[in-house]
Amino acid sequence: MSAHPAPVPVRRRDPGHTVVAATTAFVATVVGLIFLAWLVLFITKGRFLKHPFERILSSYSQRTVTVAGDFNLYFDPIAIRFKAEGISVSNPTWASKPNLFQASLVDARIETFHLILGEKILDWLTLRDGAIDAEWDAKHEHNTWTFGQPTTKGQPFRMPLIRKASVTGTTVRFRDPMMFLSTDIGFQDINGVNNTVANNIRFSGDGTIRKEPFTVFGQQTSPNQLIAGGGNQFELHVHSPRTFIDVAGTLPAATQIEGADLSVAARGRNMRDLFDLIGVAVPDTRTYRLRAHMMKSGDEYRFTRLTGMYGNSDLAGWVTVALPPPARGGSARPNITADLSSRFVDIVDIGPFIGYNPTALATQGATAAATTQHKGDGVPRILPDAPLRADAIKGFDAKVTYRIKDIKQPYTPISNILLGLNLDHSLLKLSPLNFDVAGGHLDSDISIDARRPAVFTDYDIRLSPTPMGTLLKRFGVDQAGTTGTIKARIKMTGTGDTVRQSLATSNGRIAIILPKGTFWTKYVQLAEFDLGVFVQRLFQKQLKKPVEINCGLIGFTVRDGIAAADPILIDTTGNVMTAKGGFSFKDESLSFAFRADAKKFSLFSGQSPVGINGHFAAPGISIISPQLLTRAGAAVVLGVVGTPIASLLAFVDPGDAKSAACGPVLAGANAAAQRTSKGDPRKDIGKGKTADVKAEQGKKKILGL
Known about the structure:
Elements: H1 15-44, H2 50-61, E1 65-67, E2 71-75, E3 80-90, E4 99-110, H3 112-116, E5 121-128, E6 131-135, E7 161-168, E8 171-176, E9 181-187, E10 192-193, E11 196-197, E12 201-209, E13 212-220, H4 223-227, E14 232-239, E15 243-251, E16 261-268, H5 271-276, E17 288-297, E18 300-310, E19 313-322, E20 335-346, H6 347-350, H7 358-364, H8 366-370, E21 372-373, E22 380-381, E23 397-408, E24 414-424, E25 427-437, E26 440-449, E27 456-467, H9 468-471, E28 485-495, H10 499-504, E29 507-514, E30 517-519, H11 524-528, H12 531-539, E31 547-559, E32 562-572, E33 575-584, E34 590-598, E35 610-615, E36 618-622, H13 626-641, H14 644-647, H15 662-666
């Protein structure tokens, strides 16, 4: 009997081993296929992809893409190699040129990993006989380089990062109707042998911006380093009839401004022309020279270590210009931020900021330039009439701080100016606008609203107590004999896009307050025209005795550009000075009747009103008034019918002036609130009525006559 063989044990499969084996096989297959594809592409150079490339790219871009000659597209070994001979990409139908891009040769190496991440980085690029047409449409909604139109809005151009480049026979054309910019730039041929370049890479061109022609030229002064991947010494010069810009420095790569170390210099006749290049409105200036270091960071262009001059004034600080890409559903707004300072500023250089012609200031001087001729009537004017560029400021925002240490000017000492400018969607605020003046301090906040159909300005100007002796020294006031101070407040609003129009339509109040103090000038008694006191003090050698001011108010109510006295009232120990009338911002005319009534008896008093007339730019004074002539006539009659002594009675002042209650005066109250020291309403002052601006030269009783 034979024995049965032992059964063979059944091998069970390990599930884990099966998964690993399957995964390994799958990965090996994928890798093999990828390697096979890579190998096929590498061997064939991807020439068979030429027509699919044309078809797919044409469908994606909604343009016609063609390659007339040889075509390569493969991995080498990881980076993408691309080569196309006779390539062209068409423009949309609205463009002025048929093709966005065409070239006899494009040969490039593109980093695959960065491309997957959405970054366009070229290790190197060879471009021959290229022609690039970049333009915006008339409405600034579409451009030639943004694909997917007409549904896709135009996007800002983003230059790919090119580390090394060789460019020959290439031109670039750019048009932007909204910026009124048109330029054509050509690149000089580069002759390279064994990875070296025999000459510099030069480019030049011309164009127009806002109807102003300009030329542009420059060069890369170390192209061998550039081709080898090193730094690039770069120069760029832009010249127009009134503006010159020079840029020099080192670029990390051929098209990389980010991280570049560049020096920028600009000079010209008017800084406004410089900023017009980027569509930013700034005030006019006199001739300027500026130099700064420029660095690009993201969407910002930062100009640091800025130094220079405008006119005779120095300027330093920093400026940042942010040019963000358009936001979804609209366009982004450029934004200017700056922190500037000047150690010394000539008052003539400030004139253009508020509308005075910079050329006239430079050639004629401050006084002549400020006294302009109004069209049609030949009347001299002081208020500037240069319009605010309301349309220009709609396109950007700004926040600027400007400090000035000292101002050179012949009138009164001004220093430590601090200006804060904030522009937000056409609302321009000058706040603060502060400075020290003659020992006092002026604070102001001015708001200019250009969002409205008519530009609306709100003025709020405040002068702290300021020594009159320092403030009025130039006008003959003796500082040693003057202890009085002056404070003021101007609160008005106006409509118009020039300083002149704004003030000509203004409404509000002006109040200048004189607290108790002394005041001396040899012209005071002449202003009061009290001949008796003047002659008496002259013979007694007491002319230099200061006038004791108890309180004073020079107030105006402004309605539609007409400022009427409301009131003008100055109470001194010997007199009460009042005035009626006012002035007009519309035609800058003056019409005042000042008078001083004595508080005590005075002989030889000719206390009739003193008239001030004319215009801001050419004021006049009238001392021989009808009232004084009436007194002289009365003196003649009395001398004929009586005795010569009797004629003197016509010039006797009984000294019946009523002292002012200083409370309402020092509070800056209007005429209706003013009282005499006995509490009675005053009837001898202007009531703030526009009809009273025609100077009232009221009659004064002469001994009851």
